[in-house]
């Protein structure tokens, strides 16, 4: 009976993995397709000096792709660093201190997570539009000096919706944290700042790293909020891919997606190694 149950569990697990990862495998395979229609696999492409990597060469020669990738990485890195710092501070404050607005602060953390992303995107767009209109009018900004949507607004938007995720992950790590360790450090002569850097932060580092990695991944993949808050010169890879899908779909899209998949996998591998070393 146990062997039969184990067989069914193994089969069910295998089907789940096939369901999750088969589309990714198909996407990678079609990055080497010789057909430009990207609907039927006609064979492995073999053109020019790049051979089977022809579409990857086409991809890396595309200036728009490189610009979108640079914007995406800039937004992801800056927003991840900022949201990780603010989210960690918020988690520590909510976990350790009592203040009048604590209940409201705890509830408000869940709002960006539970509301539809398109609602948040429209709300942020309305906020920036009203704020920039008032500032441009108040300070008489004209022409190129006028405040408008761009890379900065996308970064601020990504920070705003990433902070709750970081705060919740770090706060989960803080549950069960033994404050006696900090008290022992202070008894030995360490002040609050030294205690945080030498005791508290190393202990909660896996949670901080996990929250930062989650914020980084969310920023890389975000489309809806970026769509509403980007402007000229701030096109990201998800927005660029959406533009390609509105035209003829070529294996260049698959090549771009393949590079992106392996980039995320590399980031996950680095994160896992850092966590093991910590």
Query: How much helical structure, as a percent, in the residues?
Result: over 70%
Distance between the termini: 42 Å
Mean pLDDT: 84
The ordered string of helix (H) and strand (E) elements is HHHHHHHHHHH
Spans of at least 5 consecutive residues with low confidence: none
Alpha-beta content class: mainly alpha
Shape category = globular
The CATH topology annotation of one domain reads as: MetI-like fold
Oligomerization status of the protein chains: single chain
Largest sheet: none
User: What is the CATH architecture annotation of one domain?
Assistant: Orthogonal Bundle
The CATH C-level name of one domain is Mainly Alpha
Can you offer a commentary on this structure?
The protein is mainly α. The mean pLDDT is 84. It has helices spanning 2-30, 54-60, 63-96, 102-114, 117-139, 151-174, 179-187, 192-221, 224-229, 237-245, 251-277. It is 76% helix and 0% strand. It has a domain at 62-247: MetI-like fold, CATH 1.10.3720.
What are the defining features of this structure?
278 residues; 11 helices; mainly alpha; MetI-like fold; globular
Task: Briefly summarize what is shown.
The protein has 278 residues and is mainly alpha-helical. Helix content is 76%, strand content 0%.
Topology diagram in text:
Blueprint: H1 2-30, H2 54-60, H3 63-96, H4 102-114, H5 117-139, H6 151-174, H7 179-187, H8 192-221, H9 224-229, H10 237-245, H11 251-277
Helix pairs in contact: 1-11, 2-11, 3-6, 3-8, 4-6, 6-8, 7-8, 8-11
